[in-house]
């Protein structure tokens, strides 16, 4: 690429520094400056860094990205038609290249007590509302890419659900990337605040129009108040040339319930960090994941679940299907602090390898400092059982179809947990299509 | 050291032409440089190739830094404050009788049922030549020689079998492997050499316990076991009785080589001094153990019971290179008081049809800190490789820690691997059941813990298994309630 921009770490930092305007808000500018300093101090991680042991940053380092400056407003409703899911009835919010587009986000029918707006919009109109929330969950000790996101923090989506409010229809955040003449990096920042007793379903989708090369470096902060409930379904289906970096920071108060389903299908290089903290007891966090890695793809998941308080429950259940030269990394850590008695945590990572050249690295870790806990983890790696295949073949089903059936069955456990039928059908179809085109050997 | 490397090089360079410093005393003064390495080698009267090996390792060691990734805390070790060679103790320095020995130690000996003469030997009391074990050892050596098995100290082997040493030493754990392996290669004091010729089934369990001249092998022990095609050997290391030792840092290296169809069974019971209640003065046990299944259908099996040491840092590993070779790792580790253990294994599957089993049982009590850290790597050519890993942790008390850090890397789809881990405490139901049948709480805990570890104890040679059970009960005394 001859963009003239510096590549690698310098490029990222230079772009982040260039973006620092802060809309004249003192606190925001200070926060962005601190984040930039943090990023500078860290530098680009290497494979010596435990969190990047199996994840090569070479591809990302060699590529220069520019920050988009102005929102892309030329898109019409018809242009994004192909990005929509049939039959999915939702409160839709559309971001293009990291910018909130009000024209494509029809938010009239929101129930009482629910507020959805663009971050940039709110920073202009009600900055005080955001000051207490932004970075409140992610904290000040940010890893590199979250720090870079914070350093150029400007736009994204804010969802605030008041106490006791219940949303019947899901909220759908569509992060759309549109190819431009030079590779762009979009760094949207999403903020989800669920007040006490609020209930909602949030669907986050990452996708592109076309196969262009770009990078998404998003951070989503979610805070759940007392007894709040959030179903959070994230479907990553970026362009096959894209880089995807996502950081999810979750904080749960007493009795709250979070069900997160992470589906990874697209991008050539995708890294997801899920970070869970509890601020009250009896909270329940359920993280489910499904990833498909095909030729030249890397799917990298990092889970950091810390039980600092007693009586919380967490479940981590990730399943992967690898084909072609696909690579996947799973690095999960469940930490139980000294006083977090009665913690119940179960982590599982199961993988299906369909080809000779796929590669998998998994690291399910437990760090336990309390005795009255129930913690377990399990990992399996294997291929499709020849007996199962034989059973289906003996019933007249051709080998490729039988394989696909078995893979879909394997993936089904996660897909079935999605809350809307339209989304379940969509994901099943996407998974099926990918398996069909995959050279199953 | 404050001088720059360049100056050091010039200062040292003259010795390359064969000058050495003469140091008179029995024990070398603290500190480590090339002269010390040469002096160690000279004192042991080693041939030139050994000096070269040691110096190469020493020079490499200088370029390395101490590993910081294990989940253990200890004050930084000053490697210049350690004396790297001490001649075997003269009898007049040793304690004269059991009266001079720590009564706590003696109590433990009695509980383990160790005969009085053995107690003296273990406690480091000078024993006279008529001591029974000497004759026992001699009988053993005779029957081993008959079978053609070589079982001697490394120093002896360097002189008598230099070809074997040249061929095998450092071939599994090269001096470049890690910080402590490099240090060991430079300054190792002594150790054991076992060679089992082709097709020979070693007639008895080999144990350093019976090799009188193996006592006082010092802090940098080196063990090399070579099993030729179709042979079998079972080796026991350590003993259940707590051992007194002046050296705080122990950095041993163990290398096992199994050729086609050979099997090596290596059992360890480690019970070094764990330090006082505050964890002061305990042994640092930083060991590199690795077995190389070079031949097809070879098998290496590690069994360890780790109850001692203030800090244990140890990962007995298997390189499964031969087709259909098998690696096993069975471990029970107990940490109590302020003990810390970071232990586990590495199973590197390279050959086709290789299989490995990992069973790790960790018991953490008091302020104990325990980490299972394991790697299972299945290479691209390891068609049909199989691994099963199970690591269970038992927590006793609410101030102890149990970590599980498994690393699993799979590059072959035909591989089948499973990993399971659980963490739990002794449940009140279990305890209540035992108590209602009239068992004291301590007996009940001991029973439950022994049941928890049974899978591993079953792998130990019989006499060891019995002792290990007793040891475990004693180790956990007072940990409950």
Automatic annotation (TrEMBL), chain A:
<feature type="domain" description="SUF system FeS cluster assembly SufBD core">
    <location>
        <begin position="184"/>
        <end position="410"/>
    </location>
</feature>
<feature type="domain" description="SUF system FeS cluster assembly SufBD N-terminal">
    <location>
        <begin position="25"/>
        <end position="172"/>
    </location>
</feature>
<dbReference type="InterPro" id="IPR037284">
    <property type="entry name" value="SUF_FeS_clus_asmbl_SufBD_sf"/>
</dbReference>
<dbReference type="InterPro" id="IPR000825">
    <property type="entry name" value="SUF_FeS_clus_asmbl_SufBD_core"/>
</dbReference>
<comment type="similarity">
    <text>Belongs to the iron-sulfur cluster assembly SufBD family.</text>
</comment>
<dbReference type="Pfam" id="PF19295">
    <property type="entry name" value="SufBD_N"/>
</dbReference>
<protein>
    <submittedName>
        <fullName>Fe-S cluster assembly protein SufD</fullName>
    </submittedName>
</protein>
<dbReference type="GO" id="GO:0016226">
    <property type="term" value="P:iron-sulfur cluster assembly"/>
</dbReference>
<dbReference type="InterPro" id="IPR055346">
    <property type="entry name" value="Fe-S_cluster_assembly_SufBD"/>
</dbReference>
<dbReference type="Pfam" id="PF01458">
    <property type="entry name" value="SUFBD_core"/>
</dbReference>
<dbReference type="InterPro" id="IPR011542">
    <property type="entry name" value="SUF_FeS_clus_asmbl_SufD"/>
</dbReference>
<dbReference type="InterPro" id="IPR045595">
    <property type="entry name" value="SufBD_N"/>
</dbReference>
From TrEMBL, chain B:
<feature type="domain" description="SUF system FeS cluster assembly SufBD core">
    <location>
        <begin position="210"/>
        <end position="452"/>
    </location>
</feature>
<comment type="similarity">
    <text>Belongs to the iron-sulfur cluster assembly SufBD family.</text>
</comment>
<dbReference type="Pfam" id="PF01458">
    <property type="entry name" value="SUFBD_core"/>
</dbReference>
<dbReference type="Pfam" id="PF19295">
    <property type="entry name" value="SufBD_N"/>
</dbReference>
<dbReference type="InterPro" id="IPR055346">
    <property type="entry name" value="Fe-S_cluster_assembly_SufBD"/>
</dbReference>
<dbReference type="GO" id="GO:0016226">
    <property type="term" value="P:iron-sulfur cluster assembly"/>
</dbReference>
<dbReference type="InterPro" id="IPR045595">
    <property type="entry name" value="SufBD_N"/>
</dbReference>
<protein>
    <submittedName>
        <fullName>Fe-S cluster assembly protein SufB</fullName>
    </submittedName>
</protein>
<feature type="domain" description="SUF system FeS cluster assembly SufBD N-terminal">
    <location>
        <begin position="142"/>
        <end position="202"/>
    </location>
</feature>
<dbReference type="InterPro" id="IPR037284">
    <property type="entry name" value="SUF_FeS_clus_asmbl_SufBD_sf"/>
</dbReference>
<dbReference type="InterPro" id="IPR010231">
    <property type="entry name" value="SUF_FeS_clus_asmbl_SufB"/>
</dbReference>
<dbReference type="InterPro" id="IPR000825">
    <property type="entry name" value="SUF_FeS_clus_asmbl_SufBD_core"/>
</dbReference>
């Amino acid at each position: 690429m001859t963009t003239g921009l510096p590549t690698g770490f310098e490029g990222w930092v230079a772009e982040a520094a260039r973006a620092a305007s802060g809309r004249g808000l003192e606190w925001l500018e200070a926060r962005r400056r601190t984040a930039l300093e943090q990023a500078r101090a860290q530098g680009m991680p290497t494979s010596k860094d435990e969190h990047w042991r199996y994840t090569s940053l070479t591809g990302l380092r060699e590529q220069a990205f520019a920050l988009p400056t102005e929102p892309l407003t030329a898109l019409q409703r018809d242009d994004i038609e192909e990005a929509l899911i049939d039959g999915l009835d939702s409160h839709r919010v559309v971001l293009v290249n990291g910018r909130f587009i009000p024209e494509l986000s029809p938010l009239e029918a929101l129930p009482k007590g629910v507020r959805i707006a663009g971050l940039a919009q709110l920073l202009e109109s009600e900055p005080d509302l955001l000051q207490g929330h932004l970075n409140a969950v992610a904290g000040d000790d940010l890893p590199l890419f979250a720090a870079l996101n914070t350093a150029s923090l400007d736009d994204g989506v804010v969802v605030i659900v008041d106490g006791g409010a219940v949303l019947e229809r899901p909220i759908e955040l569509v992060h759309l990337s549109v190819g431009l003449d030079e590779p762009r990096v979009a760094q949207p920042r999403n903020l989800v605040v669920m007040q006490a007793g609020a209930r909602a379903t949030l669907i986050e989708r990452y996708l592109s129009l076309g196969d262009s090369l770009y990078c998404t470096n998003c951070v989503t902060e979610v805070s759940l108040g007392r007894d709040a409930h959030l179903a959070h379904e994230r479907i990553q289906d970026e362009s096959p040339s894209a880089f995807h970096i996502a950081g999810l920071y979750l904080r749960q108060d007493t009795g709250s319930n979070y069900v997160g389903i992470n589906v990874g299908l697209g991008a050539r290089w995708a890294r997801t960090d899920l970070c869970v903290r509890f601020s009250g007891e009896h909270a329940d966090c359920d993280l489910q994941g499904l990833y498909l890695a095909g030729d030249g793809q890397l799917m990298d998941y990092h889970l950091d679940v810390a039980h600092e308080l007693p009586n919380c429950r967490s479940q981590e259940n990730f399943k992967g299907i690898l084909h072609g030269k696909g690579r996947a990394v799973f690095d999960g850590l469940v930490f139980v602090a000294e006083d977090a008695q009665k913690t119940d945590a179960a982590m599982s990572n199961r993988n299906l390898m369909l080809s000779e050249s796929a590669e998998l690295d998994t690291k399910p870790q437990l760090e336990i400092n309390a005795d009255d806990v129930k913690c377990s983890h399990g990992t399996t790696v294997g291929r499709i059982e020849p007996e199962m295949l034989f059973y289906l073949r003996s019933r007249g089903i051709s080998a490729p179809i039988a394989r696909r059936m078995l893979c879909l069955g394997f993936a089904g456990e996660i897909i079935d947990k999605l809350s809307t039928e339209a989304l379940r059908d969509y994901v099943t179809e996407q998974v099926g299509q990918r398996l069909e085109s995959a050279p199953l050997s | 050291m404050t001088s720059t490397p360049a100056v050091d090089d010039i200062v040292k360079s003259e010795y390359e032409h064969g000058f050495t410093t003469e140091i008179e005393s029995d024990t070398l003064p603290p500190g480590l440089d090339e002269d010390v390495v040469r002096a160690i080698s000279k004192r042991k009267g080693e041939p030139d190739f050994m000096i070269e090996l040691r110096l190469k390792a020493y020079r490499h060691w200088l370029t390395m830094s101490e590993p910081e990734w294990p989940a253990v805390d200890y004050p930084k070790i000053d490697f210049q404050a350690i004396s790297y060679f001490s001649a075997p103790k003269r009898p007049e320095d040793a304690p004269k009788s059991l009266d001079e020995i720590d009564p706590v130690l003696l109590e433990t000996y009695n509980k383990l049922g160790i005969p009085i003469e053995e107690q003296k030997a273990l406690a480091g009391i000078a024993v006279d030549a008529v001591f029974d074990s000497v004759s026992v050892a001699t009988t053993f050596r005779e029957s081993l020689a008959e079978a053609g098995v070589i079982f001697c100290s490394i120093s002896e082997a360097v002189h008598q079998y230099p070809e074997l040493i040249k061929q095998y030493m450092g071939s599994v754990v090269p001096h470049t492997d890690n910080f402590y392996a490099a240090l060991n290669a430079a300054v190792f004091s002594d150790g054991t050499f076992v060679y089992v010729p082709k097709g020979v089934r070693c007639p008895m369990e080999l144990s350093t316990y019976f090799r009188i001249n193996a006592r006082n092998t010092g802090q940098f022990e080196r063990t090399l076991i070579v099993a030729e095609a179709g042979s079998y050997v079972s080796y026991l290391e350590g003993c259940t009785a707590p051992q007194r030792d002046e050296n705080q840092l122990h950095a041993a290296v163990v290398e096992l080589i199994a050729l086609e169809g050979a099997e090596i069974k290596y059992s360890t019971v480690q019970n070094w001094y764990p330090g006082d209640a505050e964890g002061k003065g305990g042994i640092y046990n930083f060991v590199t153990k690795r077995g190389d299944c070079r031949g097809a259908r070879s098998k290496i099996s590690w069994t360890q019971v780790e109850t001692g040491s203030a800090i244990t840092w140890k990962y007995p590993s298997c390189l499964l290179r031969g087709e259909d070779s098998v690696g096993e790792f069975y471990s029970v580790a107990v940490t109590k008081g302020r003990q810390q253990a970071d232990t586990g294994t590495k199973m590197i599957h390279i050959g086709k049809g290789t299989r490995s089993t990992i069973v790790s049982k960790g018991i953490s009590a008091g302020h104990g800190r325990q980490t299972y850290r394991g790697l299972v790597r299945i290479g691209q050519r390891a068609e049909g490789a199989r691994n099963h890993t199970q690591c269970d942790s038992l927590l006793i008390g609410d101030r102890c820690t149990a970590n599980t850090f498994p690393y699993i890397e799979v590059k072959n789809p035909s591989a089948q691997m499973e990993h399971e881990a659980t963490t739990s405490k002794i449940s009140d139901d279990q305890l209540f059941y035992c108590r209602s049948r009239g068992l004291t709480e301590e007996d009940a805990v001991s029973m439950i813990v022994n049941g928890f570890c049974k899978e591993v104890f079953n792998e130990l040679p019989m006499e060891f298994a019995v002792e290990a059970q007793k040891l475990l009960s004693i180790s956990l005394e007072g940990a409950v309630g």
